[in-house]
Structure formats: structure tokens, C-alpha cells
Write a structure and sequence with these properties.
two-stranded antiparallel ribbon, 5 helices
Length: 106
């Protein structure tokens, strides 16, 4: 981002300092746009929001129970409304433990 546009951006982005809006911005950037956590931190610092890398990480990985509940509800609804359901699973190791990923699609 060009440094000359930062004062204008700072002025327009003062509304994002509320916690829910900031969390939405971070989650959208990370999951929706594929922006890395260091890039998110840099963006926020550039527009005048002082945040640590650890806090960005916490916002990305913690307190997403509502999202998981919504995902589970969508899956259950899809299963109920579908004529057929295709599934697959694959094994992998994560943090030294064997895990299985189940994939469902219609």
C-alpha cells in the first residue's frame, strides 16, 4: 500500500476499532482473502491500530463456537434435504497424533 494513502485510510477506518468489527475484519482477511497473519498485523498497524501478533493469532483461532455450530447446522440441513450424500475420508498426522478427515459432498 502506498504510504501517501495511509492518512486517508486512517481517517476512514476509525470505525473498525470496535472489537466485533475488528474481529470480523481479521477473520475476513484471513479466511476469506487468504491474507497472512503478519500481513494483517502490518495492515492494522498501518491504519493506526496497535495489535500484537499474538492477539491477531488469538482472534483467528479462538472463540469460533458460533461458526462451528452454524457449519454443523448447514451440514445437517444438507443431509436432510439431499437425495444422496457422497463421503470420503483421509488419514493424516497432526501434532504427532493420527487423525482422520471426513469429507461430505452432494
Amino acid at each position: 500500500m502506498a504510504k501517501r494513502s495511509l492518512p486517508i485510510l486512517r481517517k476512514r477506518c476509525t470505525v473498525i476499532t470496535s472489537a466485533p468489527v475488528l474481529q470480523c475484519l481479521i477473520l475476513h482477511q484471513y479466511f476469506g482473502s487468504g491474507v497472512t497473519q503478519p500481513q494483517i498485523k502490518e495492515l492494522l498497524w498501518d491504519i493506526g491500530i496497535s495489535i500484537s501478533a499474538g492477539e491477531v493469532n488469538n482472534l483467528v483461532i479462538h472463540d469460533h463456537e458460533e461458526f462451528h455450530a452454524e457449519k454443523d447446522e448447514i451440514l445437517a440441513t444438507g443431509i436432510r434435504c439431499s437425495r444422496y450424500l457422497q463421503t470420503d475420508d483421509t488419514g493424516a498426522r497432526h501434532q504427532g497424533a493420527k487423525r482422520v478427515l471426513h469429507l461430505h459432498w452432494q
